[in-house]
Structure formats: C-alpha cells, structure tokens
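YM 10:42: Transcriptional regulator NanR sequence, as discussed on the call
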Amino acid sequence: MSRYRIERKTLSEQVAEQLEAEILEGRLSENDQLPSERELMEQFGVGRPAVREALFHLQQLGLIAINSGTRARVIRPTAEAVMARLSGVTRQLLSKPDGQQYFQEARAMFEISLARYAARNASEEDLARLRDALADNRDAIGDEARFKRSDNDFHGVLASIGRNPIFDAIHVALSEWLDDRRALVLQQKDEDKAATAAHTEIIAAIESRDPDAAEAAMRRHLDRHYGTYMQLKKRLSDAS
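YM 10:58: structure's back
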C-alpha cells in the first residue's frame, strides 16, 4: 500500500485553481472579463455545474464579481473579503480549549498597537472623533444593546486612525468574533460604566501623546474584560 495520500480534486476545484492562477499571475487583470460559461466549458472540457461552482468559489475569494446577464469580471481583492474567509476558521479555533486565550493575545497585540499608534499620530480630527465616540458611550449607559454598538464603534474609530483598510477589516472581524463575549459581559451590573471609564483613560493617554500610558490603559481594559468574561463562562459551566 502506498505511504502517500493522493488528494483527488473535483473538476470545479481544478477549474477554479487555474483561473485563480491566471488572475494572481497577471494574465487576467482587474476589470478584465472572464470568458463566458460556454467558453469556459469548452476550454476546460467540463460541464456547466463545474464552471459555475468554480466561479462561485472565485467570487467567495473576492477575486471576481458576478452580475446577472454579464460575464464575470476580475476585481481587486479587498481586506474585508480576506478577513471574511478567515471567519469560519477563527470560530473553529475559538471553540478549542485554549482558543479564547489565543484570541485574547491576538486581540491585545492589535488593540495595544493601535493605542500606541494613536498616541503618536492621531490628528485633532481623530481626537474629536474619539471624544464623540466616548460621548456616545456615556449616553448609552443603561441601554445594553446600544452600549454594545457604541463600544464597538469606539474601537472602530481607534482602528481607523491608522488609515489602513486592513486595520479596518481586522476590526470588523474582531467585532464579529467578540459579539457573544460583549453581550455576556454587558449583562453584568455597571459593566458599561467600567468600559466607559476605561475608554476615558485611553483617550486621556492618547491626548497626552503618551504611548506607554495608552498601552497600559488599553491593556488594563482588555485584561479586565477578558477576566470578567472567563469568570462568567466558568460560572455558567459550573451551573450546567
């Protein structure tokens, strides 16, 4: 018996791989139209279902756009599309025994870096947007659903200061993966007030142009939130 496992790929996977290679290697450029379905069927010697599955896969990768009545068109992949592909994988990792700890470490590295960057580089306009986000936090205290949105928006403003679309996409992905955690933590009495106080400290450090203080304030905020979540999770597990 062979010691090697041969992976058999479907026809649609083979078609998708070849088209993806043409896009990534530049033989098909942004805004170029792909051949029609019939032409692709003839080119690859496959049926319509395989072609359609291949095109759907490329669309999911963010490499092409498909509009009814027109040929598929090559587009530039967006950071949002890349992060969306990671979403399912990340949720699976979070379900593992150490998943939450790994996620917390990754989140801390990202958020702390943003806080340090903001302390060095935030413009007056950026600071004004942070203050507005903080005001929304204060106004939302006592309204769990509204505060959860305002909490997310505060961190979104912080991510936007870098003016990097990948930062924005990572923030959106983190927000999705944090949704259940935020909802659980905010059920605790005065947790919205504690988060608002933490955001106030973070902004004060950023306004003072003190990266070390901004890092320390963000770390305290994240550690407290994570600690509260893990305590609640253990309590629920013990009660079940």
